[in-house]
Write a structure and sequence with these properties.
This protein is of the alpha+beta class. It is 32% helix and 24% strand. It contains 5 helices and 9 strands, in the order E-H-E-E-E-H-E-H-E-E-E-E-H-H.
Amino acid sequence: MAIFHLSAKIISRKAGRSSTGAAAYRAGEQVIDERTGEVHDYSRKRGVEHAEIVMPSATDWRPTRAELWNAAELKNKRADAQLAREFVIALPDELSPEDRKRLALDFAHEIADRYSVAADVAIHAPSRDGDNRNHHAHILLTTRRLGPDGFGEKTRELDDQKTGKVLVTEWRERFAQLQNERLREPGLDARVDHRSHAEPDLDAAPPPHPG
């Protein structure tokens, strides 16, 4: 049974966090924060199956992970700045590793192109101590659009309390569509549904999200 999960959260300086640290941890790499001098070294972290920067099609900039997130940190100067937005998505255990990778990257490309933001994708294997079906990916998004001269305006539509929630719901639906397309391709019967089981037309009990 394929399991659907997509959650969204904010990486905020006000909460004592940094986008450089978040990116380093999720990708299992070392990133030095040029703003603070702090070294975020997670190069010994296990379980990262793939990490890749996805840029919007309209830009020719191809930064390293350190270049991308240091630029984001330096552009967002406020002490309470929102530095990155994160989508955490479950990837179907029924798919092959290559198809799970393709699913995560295709989803990230759609988001990057729609909002002109960069997306940092890190695909994680299930934890050795958890459910062995819990394949998932972290997608860190810049909170500013990328233009010809680098980072520009904020993605305000995603920050707004009303429109932001609507857009996340739309992305949940789109991710379910993409998953089901990938599950159909090899002839698998499994399907996912993004809707809450509190909605009146869903009668089945919700499956637990592993991990």
